[in-house]
Design a protein that fits this description.
The structure holds two protein chains of two kinds. Chain A is an alpha+beta fold. Helices cover 32% and strands 25% of the residues of chain A. Chain A has two domains: 2-43; 108-266, Thrombin, subunit H (Beta Barrel), CATH 2.40.10.350. In chain A, a hairpin with a 4-residue loop joins strand 6 (170-175) and strand 7 (180-185). Chain A is globular, with a radius of gyration of 24 Å. Chain A starts with a helix and ends in an 18-residue tail after the last strand. The longest helix of chain B has 26 residues, at 129-154. The chains are: A alpha+beta, B mainly alpha.
Chain lengths: 280, 165
């Protein structure tokens, strides 16, 4: 009897295990279903835990960042002394060229809630959500440069897809040569450096090492001029239709603690930023 | 009966403490990439005291929570934690669970297996798989095993074990 009961328990154990594996595989194979479930869990069960983590991050940031912030404030105050003259000069040059004033980009500061999973860094939980005005596809930057883009938004938190995520893409160009391309993560099975690739560069264009790569503003997600990284070499391209450059990223999502979410004014027209003769 | 209920209550208290450590204390620790994973530690402490089926379900629930906050590839965390929970429960039959070193090694191996499955199921990343598997994951496994040793030493009566160090 005991043996039969043990056997029955063992069968039930195996059945439960295979059911859990099946559900996990279903979520892996159907990302839309998996993301819906994850979003629901994040917004309900995980809400108090994330709140706890957010309070902890804020208190740590307050303690550890005080000296750094004071130094940054002093540097900013020193730089601001020249701001008014630079503004006046910029305005004069813009009026000479017939350009309107630069569009302001409002932003929301947020803490990064890092997790313990090994894939942390491909996505980041940020401590600002729709209540702070964050929307899907808002760009996320740090002091160094581009981090990623907001993928999902809850009431008090948002989820950012960073440049280390396999699905990440951004239109970019080099400065000062203005060679255009698409930035994507350099996915690799071996190696240890976290790098980006500048793909789709025309075969006639060449980019020297050390060139700065910034977002181009094309595509309407990222504003122009956010630093992406620096070119450090060229990758081999088998088909010979394009050049691919290796880019060392300007900012690392795994080390980011505070970020800025740029609130792109999706509903506003950008036509006023262009002079009359080039407007469509 | 009352004793069993009290033991279960103490176990749940330790597990709750580990969950609080994960979300309230872990963010304060330096090097988040290698800081101990208290959530996985809680799962393994629960799993080695449960039947494999129950441990698999517990693993799935913990994995789903991990996927919800790290949704690079939803399902990878659930799969990895399910397998680790199930194996930890089965493993109880083959290792001597009252030895501190053995407990530490089992938990370290659990962390490494979880990371390996989650990384493989999530697809290639920018950091390179060998670096993740042979540098970062072992470091996290060691820190988690050390945390497990401290928890077991502090709460050995609550967890109803006699440690043979």
């Amino acid at each position: 009897m005991a043996l039969g009961s043990d056997r029955s328990l063992s069968r039930r154990d195996n059945a439960l295990f295979f059911l859990c594996v099946l559900l996990s595989v279903a979520m892996l194979l159907r990302p839309a279903f998996g993301n819906r479930v994850a979003g629901y869990v994040r917004d309900t069960v995980m809400r108090p835990f994330l709140w706890m983590q957010e309070r902890s991050e804020q208190s740590r940031a307050t303690r550890s960042a005080f000296d750094r912030l004071r130094a940054e404030r002093d540097s900013a105050a020193h730089a601001a002394q020249f701001l008014s003259s630079l503004r006046a000069e910029n305005q004069r040059l813009r009026s000479l060229l017939g350009l309107e004033a630069r569009l302001p980009v409002p932003y929301v500061p947020a803490e990064v809630l890092h997790q313990s999973a090994p894939t942390d860094g491909r996505t980041l939980i940020l401590s600002a959500g729709s209540r702070a005005g964050v929307k899907r596809f808002d760009p996320v930057i740090s002091a160094g440069g581009l981090i990623g883009v907001v993928r999902d938004v809850d009431r008090d938190r948002s989820l950012a897809m960073t440049w280390t995520h396999p699905d990440f893409r951004a239109s970019a160009f080099t400065m000062p040569a203005q060679v255009f391309g698409i930035v994507a993560p350099a996915l690799q099975l071996t190696g240890s450096d976290q790098l980006l690739q500048l793909r789709g560069v025309a075969i006639r264009d060449s980019v020297p090492n050390g060139t700065l790569v910034v977002t181009s503003g094309l595509g309407g997600v990222y504003p122009q001029g956010i630093p992406v990284g620096t070119v450090i070499g060229q990758a081999s391209e088998e088909t010979g239709w394009e050049r691919i450059y290796i880019v060392r990223p300007a900012a690392n999502p795994e080390n980011a603690e505070q970020v800025l979410i740029l609130r792109t004014p999706h509903d506003s027209s950008v036509a006023r930023a262009f002079p009359g003769d080039t407007a469509p | 009966m009352i004793s069993i209920r009290a033991d279960r209550g103490r176990l749940w208290a330790v597990l709750a403490l580990l969950v609080v450590l994960q979300f309230a204390v872990r963010p304060d620790l330096p090097y988040p990439r290698v800081a101990p994973d208290f959530l996985l530690l809680a799962l393994m402490l629960y799993a080695i005291r449960s039947r494999p089926g129950v441990a698999a379900v517990a693993g799935f629930v913990v994995g789903l929570a991990v996927d919800a906050v790290t949704p690079a590839r939803v399902g990878a965390g659930a799969l990895a934690h399910t397998v680790v929970g199930y194996l930890a429960a089965w493993g109880r039959a083959v290792f001597f669970p009252d030895n501190l070193l053995v407990n530490g090694i089992v938990i370290a191996v659990g962390v490494w297996i979880r990371n390996a499955i989650q990384l493989l199921a999530s697809g290639p990343g920018v950091g390179g798989l060998p670096m993740e598997l042979f540098v970062w994951s072992p470091l996290q496994a060691v820190t988690t095993a050390v945390a497990a040793g401290l928890v077991l030493l502090l709460f050995q009566r609550w967890l109803d074990i006699r440690l043979d160090t």
